[in-house]
Design a protein that fits this description.
Chain lengths: ~100, ~400
């Protein structure tokens, strides 16, 4: 069970990185958890597209308002924070 | 140069079904935004507020033969046009018919018709739609029905530049009359995007507020969609004088520019140049402007950029010029919004009343304008105004009006 969950979570990270890398037009290997979306050259419209892809991929609803991203209940400051937020949403959904 | 004046105005919008009701709401700061009701599939929408035109009975305005041809956006346009023409006192017969035209703005055209019929064929699996789907949904439907109803046989156009559609339409009408292509043009805009598909598309962009429209305020968190329209009679000045018509205001100037930047993010430069061009076209100086009806959508990016642009254009007196966003009252009518907002400009020029920006809870230091918070201002001597519209796609259209 534990092993399953860890595999799944690794899969989440990989899928989130793949989505972000696609937007940034980079290879997934060139995207690290510490990168900010801005560092990767993703503009506000690109962020909205990432969020949409995340919702479609994981069948979750992401609480994100493009007007004030910093006040949304979804931290998009770095790739790592996006992964953590998606893991939370997926866990809530499983729960 | 031929000068152009307004000799009639009409409107159906969330604040009222005619101009007097709309102006009364603007004077009293009554907000037309509330919980949505009656939309098909409304329970599937994340956004549950809007500025709907309520209590509008199409059958009271159109007979059974005509109604199947009219999408909601065309209905708003036609009823508005009837009011405007009645006020102007014009009859488009004889030679005037060939010298009269129509230029109407809309962003989505027959959006409700598109939505309803996609549901029919895609969701309900039907293989047949009503024969009038095409004539209902086309963007020029409102303009065409207006030309038919009043016998306008001169220039006829629909203009579609997203949220600047109405201002572009009215600016082109000004230029057509100035240039001699027509003596009278019915112009403005209308929109009926407040349906499931229209709202769902805007939800996707994640710029919609779920709790209210608060332009220039610190707590603003997005736009709120409205519906409706307004129509004005633009008339060459000497033509209006010769028949002793009451002149509501002069359409003194128009400026339009393109950002050539981003498809959604606004720039400061494009709006600045549009305002400067409108002033120059009107022969006005920044000091002459006594009121600006802002684009003021209530999104973080627009209001901040617009405030900076206004400060750049108005210079030292920026702090003393009232700048309100009446979208806080009637919502964002998208392609119809500039037309309804021109009513607030007439209110300022003719009555010295500045419509407020309501729901204004706290100022945002990033939006350094006098937003006329919450309460209308009376007894203001306004001789000239600007009305701003800045569209997605970076297309900017600014009108300058003058008291006459």
């Amino acid at each position: 069970m534990e092993q399953d969950l860890m595999t799944k979570d690794r899969a989440i990270a990989e899928q989130v990185i793949a989505i972000i890398a696609e937007q940034a037009m980079r290879a997934p290997g060139d995207v690290t958890a510490a990168d900010s979306l801005q560092d990767l050259g993703i503009d506000s419209l690109g962020v909205v597209e990432c969020i949409f892809q995340i919702e479609e991929t994981f069948d979750v609803a992401v609480p994100f308002n493009a007007n004030n991203p910093e006040e949304s209940a979804f931290d998009i400051s770095t790739v790592g924070s996006v992964i953590a937020e998606v893991e939370k949403l997926v866990a809530q959904q499983r729960g | 140069m031929r000068r152009v004046v307004i000799t009639g105005a009409g409107s159906v919008n969330p604040l009222g079904h005619d101009v007097p009701a709309t102006l009364a709401a603007m004077r009293s700061g009554r907000c037309g935004i509330g919980p949505l009701s009656g939309l098909v599939d409304q329970d599937r929408l994340a956004v549950q507020i809007g500025a709907q035109v309520t209590g509008f009975d199409p059958a009271a305005h159109f007979d059974r033969q005509r109604l199947p041809l009219l999408d909601r956006f065309a209905q708003f346009a036609l009823v508005s046009a009837r009011q405007a023409v009645a006020q102007s006192g014009l009859a488009f017969d004889g030679a005037l018919a060939d010298r009269s035209g129509v230029v109407m703005g809309t962003a989505g055209g027959g959006n409700t018709t598109v939505d309803d019929n996609y549901r029919t064929v895609h969701a309900e699996g039907k293989n047949r739609v009503h024969p009038f789907v095409v004539p209902r949904l086309m963007h020029n439907a409102a303009a065409s029905h207006m030309s038919m109803e009043f016998g306008l046989r001169g220039p006829g156009l629909a203009v579609s530049t997203a949220c600047a559609s109405s201002n572009h339409a009215m600016g082109l009408a000004l230029q057509l009359i100035r240039g001699g292509a027509a003596d009278v043009i019915l112009t403005g805009g209308s929109e009926a995007m407040l349906c499931f598909g229209g709202l769902k598309a805007w939800e996707g962009l994640r710029v919609m507020s779920r709790d209210g429209c608060r332009p220039f305020a610190a707590s603003r968190n997005g736009l709120v969609m409205g519906e409706g329209g307004a129509v004005f009679v633009f008339e060459e000045l000497e033509h209006a004088r010769a028949r002793g018509a009451e002149v509501l205001a002069e359409v003194a100037g128009f400026g339009m520019t393109s950002d050539a930047g981003d498809i959604v993010a606004p720039t400061q430069d494009g709006p600045v140049r549009a305002m400067q061009l409108a002033l120059a076209d009107a022969g006005l100086a920044a000091e002459d402007i006594g009121y600006v009806n802002a684009h003021g959508t209530g999104t973080t990016a627009n209001d901040r950029t617009e405030a900076r642009a206004l400060n750049a254009v108005l210079g030292a007196q920026a702090a003393h010029v009232p700048v309100s966003s009446t979208k806080s009252l009637h919502g964002h009518l998208i392609g119809g919004t500039g037309a309804v907002e021109l009513l607030a400009c007439l209110l300022a020029l003719r009555e010295g009343v500045i419509a407020p920006t309501v729901n204004f809870d706290a100022p945002d230091p990033e939006c350094a304008v006098d937003a006329v918070p919450n309460v209308a201002r009376h007894g203001v001597d306004v001789r000239a105004v600007l009305s701003n519209a800045f569209a997605f796609g970076g297309l900017n259209a600014v009108l300058a009006l003058r008291r006459i």
